[in-house]
# Entry
Amino acid sequence: MRKNLSLFELRLFWISLLIPLAASLLMAGYIGSTSTLYYSAGFEWINEMASVFRVPLAIAALMFPAVALVASAHRSEQTKRQITAMEANNTFSNFYKHKEEFGKLCRSLEREFQLAPIEDGILYGKIFEHNSPESLSYRMPYSSMSEINPVWGAFDAISKIQDLTRESCIDVSKLEEAVLDLVIASKRLSFIPLSSKVMIQPYKRVSLRVAIFFDPDKPYLHVDKLERFLIHLDSFASFGQAPYGTHHMKKETYKAMAEAVIRLM
# Structure
């Protein structure tokens, strides 16, 4: 059934009405042309006509349940379309409300971490990869993230740094690569300090330098702050079983981490 059509505009309605009626008239015509019928006043004649034409009358009566079925199906279809339209409208408005709330969270994070202005509309699209005015989810599980999701990249970089600094002999060159991954993920997450003199160029062929949090006495400062930043995002997006790294690194690893960052400056 096409939408926005009234019951009387439906072809199926007229088919269910006219076919029993036409079949009934044909049957009545056949009976009338092949039988000798006489008129006589009184109820006996009416009873006789009802008996003679009982088959055509029964066929004609089929139009009522047929039309009722079509009307019921039409009402169900219209109700279904109304519910679908209502859900689509709710999804549309909730999508923009969700983005608005995410923007408020970003303003709060800018103040808490002293970050450069976050383009919350762009960041929202990066984190909630599958959301749109037609489709909305309030959760973004880590298991459903693609590798281009900046949250996935941040978790991955933190995990690499954690794993490398657990080794008995730390490979500083590999640690440098992990730090570069961390800087790239931070840039894509808009996690950039508002005022920091420590700048790193994450791409060899692109003259783009990204500010990071760094203190020689606290080489894991950026990792620490980024983890807390992700925890705030997690409270909004429910990443679930995301592999958070730990900033409680051993003192013995401070020198290697500081050296890796300084060599990249």
Notes: The mean pLDDT is 81. Residues 63-113 form the longest helix (51 residues).
